């Protein structure tokens, strides 16, 4: 992918909440796209600790029904209606990507490299975030909309039981995606003046 195309994909990647089931490409292509990211994404000490589960169709809808069930135990009655509407919007999408980290891989790093033991959980989370971002950009480049949710840990036990998730897998995020029923609104971008610095560049500054 030329740099300009990648930059365009990065720019159009947004949190899109109005989603439908009309995906712009078939499930096989999406599966290949996501699995390619999992295979090639960087990871701390090349531990390849990220695990991904993709739920389409009824399996995707089942996830968000389980989320509603889990919410009943922690959300006040007067707030549950709003949360139910929120979850129902996720259910209207086409699919969900579940992002996990295999804690056994992290523990192996801690055992083999004890000097960095305290840092590996943070680096593992950064590994997972890179996979999330890469998948999100790819979905955007393919014309799909997505948003990232964090219903963990309240859904963890439900997810593990329903899809036979190994005990060592820790759920980090859920990416809901589908066709774009309504695009995201305008996004305000903060100036780079206080967000970005360059030192040592050989570019000669222009004088005014």
From TrEMBL:
Transmembrane domains' residue ranges: none
Residue ranges of domain Nitroreductase in the record: 13-178
Highest rank taxon of the organism: Bacteria
Pfam families, per the entry: Nitroreductase (PF00881)
Xref: InterPro entries: Frm2/Hbn1 (IPR033877), Nitroreductase (IPR029479), Nitroreductase-like (IPR000415)
Gene3D superfamilies named among the record's database cross-references: NADH Oxidase
Protein name, per record: Nitroreductase family protein
Organism, as annotated: Neisseria montereyensis
């Amino acid at each position: 992918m030329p740099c300009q195309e990648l930059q365009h994909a990065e720019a159009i990647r947004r949190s899109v909440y109005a989603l439908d089931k009309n995906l712009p490409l078939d499930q096989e292509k999406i599966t290949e796209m996501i699995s390619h990211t999992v295979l090639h994404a960087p990871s701390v000490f090349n531990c390849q600790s990220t695990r991904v589960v993709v739920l389409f169709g009824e399996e995707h809808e089942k996830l968000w029904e389980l989320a509603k069930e889990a919410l009943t135990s922690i959300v006040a009655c007067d707030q549950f209606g709003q949360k139910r509407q929120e979850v129902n919007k996720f259910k209207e999408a086409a699919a969900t990507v579940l992002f996990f980290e295999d804690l056994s891989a992290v523990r192996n790093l801690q055992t083999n490299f004890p000097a960095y033991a305290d840092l590996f959980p943070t680096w593992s989370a950064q590994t997972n975030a890179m996979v999330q971002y890469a998948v999100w950009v790819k979905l955007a480049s393919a014309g799909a909309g997505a948003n990232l949710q964090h219903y963990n840990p309240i859904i963890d036990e439900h997810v593990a039981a329903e899809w036979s998730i190994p005990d060592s897998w820790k759920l980090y995020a859920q990416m809901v995606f589908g066709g774009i029923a309504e695009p995201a609104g305008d996004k305000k971008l903060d100036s780079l003046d206080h967000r970005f610095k360059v030192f040592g560049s050989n570019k000669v500054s222009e004088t005014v």
